[in-house]
Design goal:
The protein is mostly beta strands. Helix content is 4%, strand content 33%. β6 and β7 form a beta hairpin.
Length: 238
């Protein structure tokens, strides 16, 4: 994608459409089907909120190729940017774009509290799809103009379940479900009706120097709205 991702973010926050609920997205022949978004929606029962993304292919069927080290490691992701304040889940207030992500990255594990593949070792699960809250901010040094916010643990606020990496990333252990064309995740966010969201499939990469910016958004596969206008609205579950 030629347009910098951060430019779309700026446009998006200026152009939110209060009348939209789910997001319908056209398929495109040049996009990888597993990341070609066709629809996105979100519902709440007042206590829990469920985010759903539908793609043209099989969700989760494409993962990064392992390189055997953290430096330069790639991350594939299904992401829901929202207008929720980062403080809702324990990050610093007004510190960036709070986004819910389902990710896979075979070269490192950033969920030390959980054993996703249930093999008895909680430190070898990065290759399996898992969930994060992340805070995205602008950085022109990144290929798509965004990064996961760099932080200083012990100085910047982080949720209790954060893996204590120097980025605004939380690993609360919410289990994503990838089934056929659907990627779905339920999170403990209450009173979320009318929260704005979008859906994005993107690739990230760890800095080859393991320095800030540590985790960049390097490429965008698809944006459900086309312009990151966050037109989706969380609706009451029926």
């Amino acid at each position: 994608m030629k347009t910098p991702f951060i430019a779309l973010v700026i446009i998006g926050f200026a152009c939110q459409n209060a009348g939209a609920h789910e997001i319908i997205s056209k398929t495109e022949a040049d996009k990888t089907p597993a990341f070609d978004i066709t629809q996105a929606s979100a519902t709440t029962d007042g206590r829990l909120t469920t985010f759903i993304m539908e793609v043209a292919g099989v969700a989760g069927s494409v993962k990064p190729v392992p390189i055997g080290q953290l430096k330069g490691a790639k991350v594939e992701s299904y992401v829901w940017p929202t207008n929720l304040d980062p403080s809702v889940v324990g990050f610093d207030k007004e510190s960036g774009i709070l986004s819910l992500a389902i990710t896979a990255h075979p070269d490192f594990d950033d969920t030390p509290l959980y054993d996703e593949n249930q093999d008895g070792d909680p430190a070898n699960d990065g290759a399996d799809w898992h969930s994060h809250w992340v805070v995205l901010v602008e950085d022109t040094a990144c290929g798509a103009g965004l990064k996961v916010r760099d932080v200083s643990p012990g100085v910047d606020l982080l949720p209790a379940t954060a893996p204590y990496l120097p980025i605004a990333l939380d690993s609360p252990g919410m289990s994503p479900i990838l089934d056929g064309r659907i990627a779905r995740i339920t999170v403990p966010v209450s009173n979320s009706e009318d929260v704005s969201f979008d859906a994005v499939t993107a690739e990230l990469q760890v800095n080859e120097n393991a320095e800030a910016p540590l985790l960049c958004v390097t490429g965008v596969h698809d944006i459900a709205s086309g312009d990151l206008s966050l037109p989706g609205r969380v609706t009451a579950a029926k």
